[in-house]
């Protein structure tokens, strides 16, 4: 799509105006952001476009559209999806071997289990290997309450971060500032990183990983700016 506007400014309600007209979501709702900081960041994405608009380069705008168009109408489905990740969270499944990988996972993941318990009263069960471990209903109920308490902006960020990492715990730690995006991504890829160290990296996989890391970085920024 060719660029069809010249000026990008903010409205008093933290909307984004293109040549004086409010930017709309794909569902035709006015794009109104919760904070000036996030509104400025979204506006900067639109100012930064060249002669041709590249939607894939505007990750903050994409997340804002999702929060407005989907996080309200589909909130129950989103919470259920996230709770499903919590019931089989990546960081609950430690390797059975080799010992070096097991030690690395324990050193990296166990502090997050402690944080989740101390901060939110949720103690998730862990196991070695890939066999499913059923989580305590009380832990899942506590996670459900935690998700229900999130605003739509954070819920949208959690959905994206959880999909990128395979872990609701890592996404929550990112949302609350317990982890930086780069650290959350590294913790989600401990196994892949270990295998690459042993056998060498795959160029195509590394390229995909870099794209996902960038998306997680922007997701963390989105949630932080929505609170500013």
Strand content: 5-15%
CATH domain class name of the largest domain: Mainly Alpha
What is the residue-averaged pLDDT? 96
**H and E string:** EEEHHHEHEHHHHHH
Query: Strand order of the main beta sheet, please?
Result: 1-2-3
- Specify the structural class: mainly alpha
**Number of strand elements:** 5
Sheet of most strands: 3 strands, antiparallel
CA radius of gyration is 19 Å
Question: What percentage of residues falls in helices of 4 or more residues?
Answer: 55-70%
Q: Count the helices. How many? A: 10
Give the overall form.
globular
- Spans of 5+ residues with little confidence (pLDDT < 50)? none
Per CATH, what is the topology of the largest domain?
ATP12-like fold
Q: Tell me the number of structural domains.
A: 2
What's the architecture of the largest domain in CATH terms? Orthogonal Bundle
Span between termini: 32 Å
CATH superfamily of the largest domain: ATP12 ATPase
